[in-house]
Write a sequence for this structure.
């Protein structure tokens, strides 16, 4: 065991990039092989351990100093072979049937081994690092040179995720101009990014109106739009409930509109016959206050379970009510749950839905409301308006 430890320490000291643990010794062991790769996590170099079964892969991250110990937990009792790769060399360790440690070293051809790129650099993002994007610079996500600030990689990924979800639905948008209303826009970080993506990156014509209740926020956002030269982006003071648009609306965006404000935004979108709806709900309190179901009594006893159940029920009802109004609706993960519990995005696209399917969705919503003992705003608004 001491010999193995010495050989591992020597091999790992040569700036390794990758470790493959293979050739099972314990045939009953559930993992088929294990890979360890260096990755960049929030600016820190770590090791990602990937354990493979027949159908799944399980991953976790460890500190680089823990690599040798992680390998020795698997070798030689569970696996007979290790291959350790660096930029210039591959070290192979194998345990023979007699228990002897066999060693092999070879020079790696130039270009055969690659350095770790990190979680955030492996994907081809729509908003690319290295491009100076003024809103991202002002947000502190990019440096003035267009590089992602190390501590802002999660925010960078979240913004790109939103743009990816938009990009996926507007590919079939045939009109010359796309008109968008952003309800409850707040400081409008994503509103500015959306304008940049549509107008400057995609070369489309877009008219975007951001709506919020805070006068100082609206004033600052208008000043910022003027600074960027975003001429067809404006911000107005107003309430979601009762807002009247002076242009035909193609897309409604609502990001973290609190509680029933999301419902009024969805209601307006349906009344305007908007083609696209992008909504990230927040603070779903309404159903939590009224939910009452004998069948779910054990779930209602515990505050945190009741709260999460109510939030999920609220968003499910929003989705199915949009379906009843002729929208193809998806509930998607917007941002990893580890970073925010507000991680569901409702994406709805106007489609040719049959009368039978719309009626079925409505009846599903009514049955769910009856079961839970609730009548949320979204159901009342879209059902009563028929």
């Amino acid at each position: 065991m001491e010999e193995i430890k010495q050989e591992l320490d020597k091999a790992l000291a040569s700036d390794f990039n990758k470790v493959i643990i293979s050739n099972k010794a314990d045939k009953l062991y559930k993992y088929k092989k294990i890979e360890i790769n260096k990755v960049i996590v929030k600016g820190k170099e770590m090791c990602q351990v990937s354990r493979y079964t027949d159908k799944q892969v399980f991953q976790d991250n460890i500190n680089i100093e823990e690599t040798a110990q992680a390998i020795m937990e698997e070798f030689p009792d569970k696996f007979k072979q290790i291959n350790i790769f660096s930029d210039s060399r591959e070290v192979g360790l194998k345990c023979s049937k007699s228990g002897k440690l066999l060693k092999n070293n070879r020079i790696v051809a130039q270009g055969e081994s690659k350095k770790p790129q990190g979680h955030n650099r492996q994907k081809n993002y729509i908003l690319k690092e290295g491009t100076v994007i003024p809103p991202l610079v002002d947000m502190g996500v990019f440096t003035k040179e267009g590089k992602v600030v190390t501590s802002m990689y999660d925010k960078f990924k979240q913004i790109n995720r939103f743009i990816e979800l938009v990009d996926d639905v507007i590919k079939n948008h045939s009109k010359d101009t796309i008109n968008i209303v952003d309800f409850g826009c707040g400081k409008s970080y994503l509103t500015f990014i959306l304008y940049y993506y549509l107008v400057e990156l995609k070369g489309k014509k877009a008219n975007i109106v951001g709506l919020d209740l805070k006068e100082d926020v609206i004033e600052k956002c208008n000043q910022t739009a003027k600074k960027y030269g975003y001429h067809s982006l404006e911000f107005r003071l107003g309430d979601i409930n009762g807002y009247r648009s002076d242009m035909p609306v193609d897309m409604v965006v609502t990001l973290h509109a609190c509680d029933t404000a999301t419902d009024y935004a969805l209601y307006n979108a349906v009344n305007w016959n908007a083609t696209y709806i992008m909504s990230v709900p927040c603070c779903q309190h309404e159903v939590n206050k009224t939910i009452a179901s004998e069948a779910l009594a054990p779930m209602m006893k515990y505050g945190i379970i009741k709260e999460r159940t109510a939030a999920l029920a609220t968003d499910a009802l929003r989705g199915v009510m949009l379906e009843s109004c002729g929208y193809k609706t998806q509930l998607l993960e917007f941002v990893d749950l580890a970073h925010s519990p507000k991680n569901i995005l409702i994406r709805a696209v106007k489609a040719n839905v049959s009368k039978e399917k719309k009626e079925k969705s409505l009846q599903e919503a009514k049955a769910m409301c009856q079961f839970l003992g609730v009548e949320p705003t979204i159901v009342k608004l879209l059902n009563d308006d028929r």
About this structure: Residues 110-122, 336-340 have pLDDT under 50 and may be disordered. The chain is about 35% helix and 25% strand. The two ends are 75 Å apart (CA to CA).
